[in-house]
Amino acid sequence: MYVPNQLEVDDAATTVANIMANETLFRFGIYVGLIGYGIFLILPLVLSKLLSPVSKIPAVLMVTFAVVSVPISYVNMLNEFAVLTLIGKANYLTAFTAEELRAQISLHLRYYDNGNLMASIFWGLWLLPFGYLVFRSGVLPKVIGLMLMFGCFGYLINFTGRFLFYDQYHGSTLASFITIPGSLGEIGICLWLLIVGVKEKQTS
Fold it and tell me: Would you list the domain boundaries of the chain?
């Protein structure tokens, strides 16, 4: 989240100039992204081990939806690698004018945004069974489970709005707030597991 906020602005030419002036930061963003998606491949498997005793089918769905998003995300990262190629110093790039290179870079950045939008379908879908398992677990806060389930619909509404109603949706109040419950739920469950842990479920 940090790197795009530092480099990308509404003006395409300025965004390209920022990337070219801060190539190391742009590379660092790609590197962290690759590590993050690798961790996201492991995370649902660990959560499944914790939560599958609650209900096996939602646990399988949780893992499936999360894992499907990973190859989409990795393939999508090729668009950022393409940007690195285009801002490089290779001799064959002299065949393009500066304006053509900027257009190509802007195009790959848009492709990358579109790829993230497609992956966000599964970033949302996995939260529904995940939230359900958290809610039903009896060892984790129910409110976090509810936020995770609401987050699923937030992601799907965001995808629908951006894909079908972009002009009306972009910059709207709904677009600004619709993904907040999911973000709070995801951050909340991470902090809870790291700080509080899982309380032992009481049995009679």
Answer: 1-125, 138-197
